[in-house]
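Handout, section B. The chain below has 477 residues.
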Amino acid sequence: MSESTLQANEPGGERPADAGDAGYRKSLKARHINMIAIGGAMGTGLFLGAGGRLAQAGPALALAYAVCGVFAFFVVRSLGELILYRPSSGAFVSYSREFMGEKGAYTAGWMHFLNWSTTGIADITAIALYAHYWALFTPVPQWVLALIALAIVLALNMVSVKLFGEMEFWFAIIKVGALIVFMLVGIYLVVTGHPIAGHEAGPSLITDTGGFFPAGVLPVVLIMQGVVFAYASVELVGVAAGETETPEKIMPKAINSIMWRIGIFYVGSVLLLSMLLPWTSYKDGESPFVTVLSSLGVPGASDVMNLVVLTAAMSSLNSGLYSTGRTLRSMSLAGSAPKFTGRMNRNQVPYGGILLTSAVCVVGVGLNAVVPEEAFEIVLNFASIGILGTWAMIVLSHLLFVRKADRGEVRRPHYRLPLSPYVQIATLAFFAAIVVLMAFDDIGRITVLALPVLLVAFVVGWFCVRGRIDTSAMDNE
């Protein structure tokens, strides 16, 4: 193997290079990566999805967020170790290629595409729902608003990775700032016992409305398959690592901070929401934060929060287009994705993959036109399958990486996932349990029944592309 294809892993160690990593500008700074990590832990699943979930499970939703958050952290910590071993814009696609071969890369890449193309539909659906909160947009059909949102984010994503980083930086600033202000105000209301919509804020709202498990334990278990969607962006830091100059310095700090952010922003905010209004006051299709502020009657407060949650959905859509563009390019150069998805514009943006994801989102625009009421839940379940598939490939890649390290074939960085391989095995078992739980949900059952069709599509797709696989994409000798 030539020197140009070798990179130092640690003193005395070497690692392979992926052709899909060439051609990118290292334009993302530490502040971008840190805010991308924050943004990945705060998205549509919290700002919109928490309303319907609270209405189903009550305050116990906090427990569901905590459990799913722990396993999401295991995934991103596994990915973090792989990033420190070898940063790559292809991220988990590239790692699957190295440790499982091109079949692994093919599976990881298309699962990621399934995840983000359907998540993109969920995001534009959420944006349209948020816009309908304002009377100005009420007459505009939901599908039109969804199409406008997609067009805006697509145009901005095409410009440069630096613009993407700046967009995510400010999106995250808005989300974090608004949520912190909301939580501070909420804590004050709880401490002072301020009445909201005829109810005195405080822990008594939990105890007086059925306790922590008002609907029982079963609904909490069942909603976990939807709660997983809330953490869909945590793996984005792996893709962004390939376009930053010093990932070894930035990534450990950014990844480690995800755990406490999950604890504060998800678990903390759900408990706070449960103490501000009875869990029965929340409803599907409306942000719980908007519900609280509307009940408070603060002039303009609910409008501001609605704008914030709309920003969160725009951020998620922006991230999805960014990440699928990079992973599809990595696959294209190896032959497992359409050739045009490997193309880059003069600003080193892989526009082919971004356009392909956007095309699927256009189908979502049609879904908003045909079944506007069910659009969000339908795509959320399919997105969950894509998320679980992507995360499973990350964990499997890490497990195989650790086994190679045990054999002395590669060197693990100092930043490591603890308790390996038990953590990986437990995580994979949890993902399998989530798929089983989907069968007990009406819409989730449709998703599970569609899995054989999805599997057949993957197999047929592999037989279509295997003849043009370029094994030199990963110089792995």
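Note. The longest strand covers residues 7-8. Compare this with the example in section A.
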